[in-house]
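Researcher: Next entry: DUF5999 family protein (Streptomyces thermocarboxydovorans).
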Amino acid sequence: MCAHRSSCPRTDSPAPHVVAAHPEQGWSLLCDGSIVFDDTGELLPDGRVIAPHRAPADRLVVAA
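Model: Predicted structure:
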């Protein structure tokens, strides 16, 4: 899956890096095969889905 010489971190590792970014479409492909969406959701290589985990709007800080 990954073309660089050292092996990529596994999906459960905290440090996979972006291989292809498509901010205009709202997603990035990581070197471990995961797809990360701008809404914080994820699609893992094995087909599992991680739902978006955004903070509720009432807990966001607003600049004055």
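Model: Note for the record: Strands lie at 18-22, 27-30, 35-37, 42-43, 49-50.
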